[in-house]
Amino acid sequence: MVDLIALLNTLVDSRGHILIPGVYDSVAKLTDEEKKLYEPIDFNPVSRSSFSSEYIYKRTFLTHLI
């Protein structure tokens, strides 16, 4: 189990960006209208768990840095 967790930990960087080559190739960029939908969401990742202290802005966290 520890080996699996260590392996999974190598798939993302410290900001949650997926490091697998090509994984974002088919993902459409968010439109301005879509980005506005995230504004009213009350979400504080820092208060959700200790690992997320690097996620400062909710929009960055919720959109996975796309």
Write a short abstract of this structure.
The protein has helices spanning 2-9, 32-38, 45-48, 58-62. It is mostly helical and 66 residues long.
Structural class: mainly alpha
**3D shape:** flat
Helix content: 25-40%
Radius of gyration equals: 14 Å
What's the total number of strands?
Answer: 0
- How much strand? under 5%
N- to C-terminal separation? 30 Å
The H/E string reads: HHHH
Instruction: Summarize the biggest pleated sheet.
Output: none
Mean pLDDT: 76
Q: How many structural domains can be distinguished in the coordinates?
A: 1
Helices, by number, come to 4
Low-confidence stretches: 50-56
What topology does this entry show?
Blueprint: H1 2-9, H2 32-38, H3 45-48, H4 58-62
Description:
With 66 residues, the protein is mainly α. It has one domain. The chain contains four helices and no strands. The chain is flat and about 40 Å long.
